Amino acid sequence: MEIAQAANTGFDWKRLVFMLTGVTLFAVVFFSSAWPDAIDPNGQHFALSKEGKGAIAVFLLAGTWWVFEVVPIGITSLMIGILQVMFLIRPAKVAFKDFMDPSVLFIFASIMIGLVFTKTGLTRRLAYKMLDVVGERTSMIYLGVFVVTAALTHIMAHTAVAATIYPLLLAIYALYGEGDKPTKFGKGLFIGMAYVAGAGSVVTLLGAARGAVAIGFFKEIVNVEVGFFELSYYMFPIGWGMTFLLWGFFMIFMKPEKERIPGLREKARELNAKMGPLTRNEIMAAIIVGTVICIMSLRSFVPALNAVDKTAIILCSSVLFFVFKILDLKDLEDIPWNIILLFAGAMSIGFCLWETGAAKWMAVNWLVMFADANWFVFVMSIAFFVMIMTNFIMNVAAIAISLPVALVIAPYLGVAPEVILYSSLAMAGMPFLLLVGAAPNAIAYDSGQFTTGEFFGWGVPASLLLMVFVGVACYILWPLMGMPVTLPAGG
């Protein structure tokens, strides 16, 4: 008992070191003298203001604290707002307003859908049906989960898909027989769901907002319209190729301890039978969620609906859950606010980097390093930059930061704009390193199966796999599909 108490009161030096590392990085950058301007190929100068340098300083502290989890991830997000205000980087009204950005409320509503699916029993019903189909082999359970997740992101936002699939995974894992303790199967199941949600979301414009934002920039800068089905044509092999490659990745690096779960199919059938017919709450929840998903999906095709922000539409479901008494006050208190705060802070630092000009300064400095490179090296340098940025800030912001700069530099190297657009979209959709890169990452983290450090550790080889696959697509696959990758001589 005394040993246990001593262990609990022992000083955590490792935590202190990483906490001070973040603080030191902030201080060194913030209090350093002015940094030189970034200069693009046209000779245009981009000065880094004191506020921009401060934004980079906050960015470094937050990244360090998030990776090593020196305090709860949501508390690090609060620090992002505090530092902006205390060091006069942005006014409080601006810095903290981003904490309630529509994207954050969209994540809140998505998590509410997941809670409803769990409370009503729809999740367990779906899990038992799925296990009845895929059987007892854990490799097939992995594959079944990944395929269902990827397919759903073609018709609804990947955040909503992750929130819906998450409780289903909890129900599946409960049948693995290891309680709540972390296992390789648990890590592979939840991290894999997060990764694959990103992979599937690149295939259509319905999976995430980043596609529409990128196409908007493309139209404005290149004056070429990219259609819904044209995007899907080029991104389909990327999304599904990565889905199956990730299945192989997790079967190698997180191979389940048990090859099969004996009697699982029979148990799933038995548990499903015990649930009886659909209840009133299950039917109401399915109707509400189904209607909201249909309306959000139709926004891409119906101009009148497109004028209404998707956040307002999905929040209608949250209100209706309480109107029809599917949820009550106790359920509202069960919302994982740590995850909501995480994304609130991510939005704040993203806007901070953008509005202070720090993001543009970083993008120009990075891309001009490759201004005399071979077209393939230049495209991969853009892909790498987007991959890093999208892990620290929301992927929409990463696209907004990097794509315009890349499209301006591309003609000097004879690089076709299409290959830049699609490679950037592929990388922006799959942030495998940090939880803040995408909502599915943070939702998966709530399972308790892995730490932020473990997520980062496995994200490094997964990101390398993505880089290689996108490189193959740029060099071989997309040209075979008819995509121009270089401009005609003299073009």
Commentary on this structure:
By secondary structure, this protein is mostly helical. The protein has helices at 2-9, 13-30, 50-68, 73-86, 92-95, 102-120, 122-134, 138-152, 158-174, 184-201, 210-222, 228-253, 264-275, 280-298, 303-306, 310-323, 329-333, 337-355, 358-368, 375-392, 395-409, 417-428, 439-445, 452-480; strands at residues 38-39, 45-46. It has a two-stranded antiparallel ribbon with strand order 1-2. A hairpin with a 5-residue loop joins strand 1 and strand 2 (45-46). The protein starts with a helix and ends in an 11-residue tail after the last helix. It is a multi-pass membrane protein.
Distance between the termini: 77 Å
Give the oligomeric state.
single chain
The count of domains is 2
Q: Look at the structure and give the mean pLDDT.
A: 86
User: Which structural class best describes the helix and strand composition?
Assistant: mainly alpha
- Tell how many strands the DSSP assignment holds: 2
The outline comes out as: globular
Radius of gyration: 23 Å
Task: Give the biggest sheet.
Answer: 2 strands, antiparallel
| Proportion in β-strands | under 5%
List segments where confidence is low: pLDDT < 50 over at least 5 consecutive residues: 1-7
